[in-house]
Amino acid sequence: MSQHSPLRRIATLVTASAVAIALAGCSTPAPADDPAVAVPGVTDDTVTIGTHTPLTGPAAAGYSSISAAVTAYFAYLNEQGGVHGRQIEYIVKDDGYNPATTQTVVRELVQEDEVFAIVNGLGTAPHMAVLDFLNQNEVPDLFVASGSTNWNQPEKYPFTFGFNADYIVESAALAQYATDEYPDKKVCLLGQDDDFGDEMIEGAELVLGEGGLTHIERYSTSNQDVTAQVGALKAAGCEINILGTINGFTALAVGTAAQLGWFPQWFSSSSGADYPTLIGYLGEDVGPKVLQGFVGTNYLPALDGDSDWVTLFQKVNDEYNAGAPFDGNTIYGMSVAYLFAEALAAAGENPTREALVDAVRSGDLAGNGILPLSFSEDNHAAYLGVGISLVDQGVQDYAGATYMVEGGTVTSVEPAPVALTAEGVPGS
What we know:
single chain; alpha/beta; Rossmann fold; 2 domains; three-stranded parallel beta sheet; 14 helices; globular
């Protein structure tokens, strides 16, 4: 991770001070909340935000539909009048899940497109590549599409907030569910060879203890062959496999195991647990069979659950998303869009970047999850708990177990879903 050069910082401060002194001699500075003060990405009629996401590359098939769902929800919102009379313009740039490309496109968004905020940048390694840049430039970096705990460092990264339940929370919940429901089974883990996998291991060991996982295997997104890893898990006698995998590699693992004639139980983080996406990889003939009993985590309205949010999102998808398939990624994208609109409404009629960040860390946002949002001055993680989902006969819904993970302790709790209000139009 790059560090900000002290000499560069000093030079920047000296230059800024000189400009400020010169301006002070000419006029009195306008207050920060003065509508006449130009705010990047904000005009009388629009608010422009941007994102980086994989429209191509190894993660595209699992995640490219998210930004389309966000775009659709903003189209719906704009037709209802937008937020405080402003239309939301959303610029989507493809980074191919490549950190070097992420750096290029995010600099374009900030320096050339002058966006108000970056919203839901996707991927742990890609977003880590721009984390310092965004915070040094004081650009609101909202609702990162990754469960890394790196987004929850308020003192180091005051402008960054996560959206996903973090990987430690998800893995601890999965391990607790395995312990509660299948106490004598051997639990193993297959994880990505980066922070994603590291934190999944950390979460599982919160519950199972250090060394409590029977076997651990890692994979790289650059190698789409996990035969060796799956073979090693099988040889170790694994009965439950916790997956720290993106959707494509979840399908690879499950499909490879089936080819080997091995059918263990699969427990996945939400990043790789969307049933329709997995069926797209595995096919309608094989997928439903090998995914029967598939366990995942979720913190948003379930695709096959009874929720007014899902009903609204389905309607928005039909009318504003060109008939695209409706799946968990659609719900995820529209949930992010709604939360941003809620934060923008709370930032006031003349929003500034500072006001937007203050709105998120105020703790007043509701979102649409099955548990309350956890944002505060001292916490930049959205959700500290998840529900356990289960696939049964092609239906993916909550299984009845919900866990909070705080201070290294896993606690069973009752879900408290946020009700839909005002047809999902904040501030109306």
